[in-house]
């Protein structure tokens, strides 16, 4: 009888020990594009009435730091506003919280604000975004320093 009890308890003990282990699930760590970048910002607006696109460009610099956040500088006179604030996201999307967004001075300029898709290979940073179905943004930047 004791032998049967041992054989019955063995599977229960194995099952219980299997349930106590933590799952071995991989986690995705974002390869955030930290450092200083420079390149071209492109804003493309589709005029629905004429089906023509209006494209505007600016040469900008983007600094990204895990401790101080981000800042956009460079040609911020007409197309893109000087932006700054915090950021975060995943391995394929990044969100920017521009603390200057909504200011009356730069209301008609594009701000780096909201959620964008991005790719980063260690040197080239490409950020893409849309606003509705007629306005898209593209940042083609190259890392210039850490």
Quick summary:
The protein contains one helix and eight strands. With 146 residues, it is mostly beta strands.
Which geometry do the CA atoms define? globular
| Spatial order of strands in the largest sheet | 1-2-3-4-5-6-7-8
SSE ordering: HEEEEEEEE
**Secondary-structure-derived class:** mainly beta
CATH architecture: Beta Barrel
Q: What distance lies between the first and last C-alpha atoms, to the nearest angstrom?
A: 71 Å
Number of helices: 1
Strand content: over 45%
At CATH level 3, the topology is Lipocalin
Question: Which stretches are low in confidence, meaning pLDDT under 50 for 5 or more residues running?
Answer: 5-10
Query: What's the gyration radius in Å?
Result: 25 Å
* Total strands: 8
Chain-averaged pLDDT: 83
Q: What percentage of residues falls in helices of 4 or more residues? A: 10-25%
Query: How many domains make up the coordinates?
Result: 1
**CATH class label:** Mainly Beta
Largest sheet: 8 strands, antiparallel, barrel
């Amino acid at each position: 009888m004791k032998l049967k009890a041992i054989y019955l308890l063995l599977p229960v003990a194995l099952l219980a020990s299997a349930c106590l282990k933590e799952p071995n699930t991989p986690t995705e760590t974002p390869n955030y594009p930290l450092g200083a970048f420079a390149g071209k910002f492109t804003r493309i607006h589709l005029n629905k009435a004429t089906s023509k696109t209006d494209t505007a460009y600016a040469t900008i610099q983007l600094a990204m730091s895990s401790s101080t956040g981000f800042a956009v500088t460079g040609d911020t006179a007409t197309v893109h506003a000087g932006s700054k604030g915090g950021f975060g996201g995943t391995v394929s999307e990044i969100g920017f919280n521009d603390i200057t967004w909504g200011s009356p001075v730069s209301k008609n300029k594009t701000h780096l604000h909201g959620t964008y898709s991005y790719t980063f290979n260690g040197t080239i940073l490409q950020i893409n975004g849309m606003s509705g179905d007629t306005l898209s943004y593209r940042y083609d930047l190259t890392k210039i320093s850490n």
